[in-house]
Amino acid sequence: MEPRRNPRTVIDPKVRQVGFFAPPDRSQSGLPDAASPVHASSSSPSGNSLSPVMIPPPRHHSDNLIPPLPSPRSVPHPAVPSSYTAASEFSPTAASSYSSGSRFPGDGDDVSFSPGRLAKENSVKVMASSVPTVSLVNKPPLNIAATDKAGAEVLNDRPKAPKEKMSKAERRALQESQRAAKAAAKAEASKGPAGTPGAAPAKPAKAASRKSDVASASVTASEKKGGDRPTEKERKKDVPHPRMQYDDTSRVEKAKRRAVVKQTEARNRVELFRHLPQYEHGSQLPDLESKFFQLDPMHPAVYKVGLHYLSGDISGGNARCIAMLQAFQEVIKDYSTPPEKTLSRDLTAKISSYVSFFTECRPLSVSMGNAIRFLKSRIAKLPLTMSESEAKTTLQSDIDHFINEKIIVADKVIVSHAVTKIRDGDVLLTYGSSSAVEMILQRAHELGKQFRVVLVDSRPKLEGQLLLRRLVAKGISCTYTHINAISYIMHEATRVFLGASAVLSNGTVYSRVGTACVAMVAHAFDVPVLVCCEAYKFHERVQLDSICSNELGDPHAIANVPGREQLNFLDGCAKSDNLQLLNLIYDVMPSDYVSMIITDYGMVPPTSVPVIVREYRREHLWM
Amino acid sequence: MMELEIELKKASDSLKSWDTTSISLTAGCDLFMRYVTRTSALEYEDFNSAKSRLIERAEKFGEISYKARRIIAMLSQDFIFDGCTILVHGFSRVVLEVLKTAAQNKKLFRVLCTEGRPDRTGLRLSNELAKLDVPVKLLIDSAVAYSMDEIDMVFVGADGVVESGGIINMMGTYQIALVAHSMNKPVYVAAESYKFARLYPLDQKDMAPALRPIDFGVPIPSKVEVETSARDYTPPQYLTLLFTDLGVLTPSVVSDELIQLYL
What we know:
heterodimer; A: alpha/beta; Four Helix Bundle (Hemerythrin (Met), subunit A); Rossmann fold; 22 helices; 10 strands; B: alpha/beta; 2 domains; three-stranded antiparallel β-sheet; globular; guanyl-nucleotide exchange factor activity (chain B)
């Protein structure tokens, strides 16, 4: 065995810090060492420098753009229109307050730049100067309580800072200021005149300070005082992220406040999956059941379906989607528009609240997500002139059509295509329990084809056993095995039929955990893998691994084997710090392992999934 | 109008039944039917205008198919460079057109031709090429791997292009594609777009059989069986590009086109 590579520092092996991190909190005392811009997660004991997985935050490009600011600062060109609205409001008045002296030596360079850029640079320079003073310890302690004034004073009192400290602080400050300035520009748009008079009195007080840039700096300083959170959050809001990341505690807090289902977070969680929700199982059901008759905002049908999801009674993409849509049909039936509100908006809001309830019970599947999108688009497209009862009946019949066309008839089409691929003498292998595959096998048997089935199953759900029971009852000869025997049994199989929870745009198939394993082994043995999936489960997102988006199930289900007391070695160990149990529900299978996808649009190769998504969204606007 | 469609369907069926094994015939008929009837002209009240629209589209289809070979030949000129060696298998008129056009454009290349038993396609093709003054060399089918080193590209035609992007062609194409793939040589397929068929074979035996008796020259004892299948299926991962009248496509685009046309 080769000697282990020496880790550079001692790192807690449980903690993996992967990715890009924001610069550390300004409110921390002292200037954090630039060499270790560590954003330690709250539970991480390692506070020290770069772990091997860490990627240091990118240096801001403006670092190199502007030389570090010495204390005589440049007076920006009065005629220059600032790129920030805050700035522009003060430029006429500000110009007058300046003496013409103390030109920045680099001014000659400035003039050659375009005005907008000049203003930006200047403002950036100012930010650079103003912001670090908030965080630098060796600066004279400033009374930061007052917002605008403080900004002014800060600039006034700023002594010459040692150059190298400035550069690091400045770099980070530049970043922060850029962000803050952007936030300020936005805040200005919303705050309007509110911000400006506040900054105005501060402005004349300073002689040698920048004009508008100060104002925006003070605005940003005030925003910054609100904590780094608002600016970061606004920055995050610029880029919409599709799913909630459960390791972002602020968002989790917000979501919790609005939650109906009080879930307690599991304590002992695997670090890699911290972005996924994991709750203590079995604790909410009695509580929710007792609340059944006290729910005003929640429709009882929705509540019932939510409880079914929570307890695991309804599982499987089609079943969950149909149950949800039928609950929504009930909702629509009982719905009446409140006064002063339009049906479409109010109903959409109601549906959204029910959807968040469902998400709390159990994260939505792709099939459910697509159905909800369909429903919302239908509601939005209702003509305003329609009467309420007409609208309600239209929506209900639309839901009926959706269920019929996209699920029931689609399944029939899939079955008719798939049975053409089954020949006499075939040995068909399937994994878990998929409704589509079950229908295929039953139909093929009805048509009199001679084949046998190998059913592969896995713990902890053991879903295959129900399917096995039903197939044997029909008279199909079956072999049952667990997934640990997959490579043993694969040489017998001639075809592999698998179901899917979703198929993504790059052809990857998102389905029950273990399916990817079966497909991989089948590929290795050159057995064709046929994935049967209705087209409404196609999604335009792309996923490359099983980690970034998944669902975590009850970890204790792995530890306990029901009915076999002598095997429960892990009883009680689950609470130990050294043991973390991971129960993934889904996994992702790359498109190379899939030979063909059978959908209601026919048999297509996995590369054609985005084509179908494109053609059918466009034609039917999601239908 | 419906009557006309039924008539068309009957005619197409009878044409297809003349040679049930020909994939291109079946595919061509199906595509023709789809192309012609996939127009809103069928909803016109005036029968004559609808009929003339159908005839217009039919003639357009015929024109496209007819001109297809010229278009394919033009598109593939960029891929034939001076001094290259091309391996050809089977007698495809499209490939012949490609090579003819290249020769007319004064490109210097040479062709290796497989014998193509039992149809002796290689002999026919090498005859044609000799007439064009293109240097030709004949190989027996087993010598393909032996010569693959000196080959720059492989050119084949297709009986049918299937939905996965693979092709059904004369027996031996799969072998050649495998060898070429393992030695990193590109395999180019020249096929007209009416050959796109809605089939999806999973393996070699998953197609309708097309049998052709093989004459070994000596009598075979009755206890010995002979594999008489005339064609095989080449999966899309062994093909590099498809030259069609719709353009130069990768195999995954075939399904795209079929979905757009059929659905």
